[in-house]
Amino acid sequence: METIITISFMVIIGAFIGGLTNSLAIKMLFRPYEPKFIGKFQIPFTPGLIPKRRDQLAQQMGKLVVQHLLTEESIRKKLQDDELKGIVKDKLISEWSKLKEEHRSVDEWLSDLGIKINKKDMQQFVTQKGLQQIDKVVVEWSTKTVDDSFGDFISHEEVHQLTSFLQTKILGIISSESTRFQLEKVVSNYVESKGFLGNMLFSMVNRQELSMKIQRLLIQYIQTEDGYQLLYKNVQKEWEQLKEQELGTLLRFFYKEEVRTKMKASLNQLLSVDKVLQLSVRTLLSPVNSNVTKEWIPLFTEKAFDMLVKQIPQILKQLNIEKMVEAQVATFPTKRMEEMVLSISRKEFKWITYLGALLGGWIGLLQGLLLYFTN
Predict the structure, then answer these.
(1) Residue 132: how many CA atoms within 13 Å on its side-chain side?
(2) Among candidates 19, 2, 51, 76, which has minimal Cα distance to 364?
(3) Containing H/E element for 38?
(4) Residue 313 and residue 71: Cα distance in Å, rounded?
(5) Domain regions of the chain by residue span
(6) pLDDT digits 0-9 by tens, 201-229
């Protein structure tokens, strides 16, 4: 009986020591968090294993992440994944759909986003850019002839149309009452210039009737085919002469100060920033809605991912993920690390403790049996 009690006692003691040893070993992975001293002498095994080797752990963790987790190749494959591109594209289309239904004015929308716009400076910028584009066109065209720029746009048919237009305008001018008065005045001046003989000759003729006859003759002539051909030949001649001239001679007026002042005023009205900002976002975006969803967003998504793929080495170099992870792990609180590990492996650590107790109990049993049989 005494032997059984002794062996049982040795099993209990062995199990207790085995379980306590394993439990202590697990705790010594993290604790104590800081080195402990007796006077100037540092107590061995303080701090715990992980706090003591945290710097080396941080370095190895950084290398692990860069060399095996967040590698250049793994990131490239992810960015080239069609599913990811589809998610991003769908998200952009969704945001665009919300934006194109926005009823607020552009000014209000930008203000809500915290974007402030200096309307005066922007208007000056837009107007200046407009003037620069006009100047650029003027400079490009100045060395060209009228024929180079407009020769292909004005056909013989259009010259005939211009002639018909001029014929109608001339008939309107000649048929007017003021023209008749001018003709009568011209006849009178002509008669007076001839002296006594002229007055005597024209005393037998009514000057008003004479001016009316001249007016009718001019009208009849302009309406005839000969009159039309006369106008056409002169218009064609002037057009042929005009085609040989350089546009620079015709565009000089663009550089006059008064012309540029009027152009600037016209551009301020035509390219009014204030009017654009007062439009609703929906109104401003409606003309490009179909192009954005069907063409621009898919193209932008594809180009953006292609650019990111090409920039992966540079991005990783700038981020320096290895040092980033190392710094984060090095500053991570040991207590928080212990809680995180225990929250994941608490059950396994308990079984390790139980296993230590079991092994300790078996060793105690073997020792008791060995002592019994040797005695």
Answers:
(1) 6
(2) 19
(3) strand 37-38
(4) 10
(5) 146-245
(6) 555 556 677 777 877 888 888 888 888 88
The continuous run of DSSP H or E covering 37 comes out as strand 37-38
- On whether the CB atoms of residues 145 and 247 are closer than 8 A, the answer is yes
Q: Provide the token pair at 160.
A: 């005939």
- For residues 15 and 358, is the Cβ–Cβ distance under 8 A? yes
- The helix (run of H) or strand (run of E) holding residue 33 is none
Mean per-residue pLDDT for 269-275? 84
Query: Is the pLDDT at 338 greater than 80, yes or no?
Result: no
Question: 284: how many CB neighbours lie within 10 A of its CB?
Answer: 16
Closest to 230 (Cα-Cα) out of 183, 178, 180, 170: 170
Q: What is the pLDDT of residues 57-68, one digit of tens each?
A: 778 877 888 787
**Long-range own/partner contacts, residues 355-359 (CB < 8 A, 24 or more apart):** 355/22, 356/18, 356/19, 356/20, 356/21, 356/22, 356/23, 357/15, 357/16, 357/18, 357/19, 357/22, 358/15, 358/18, 359/18
In DSSP terms, 145 is beta-bridged to: 246
Give the three-state DSSP class for 42.
strand
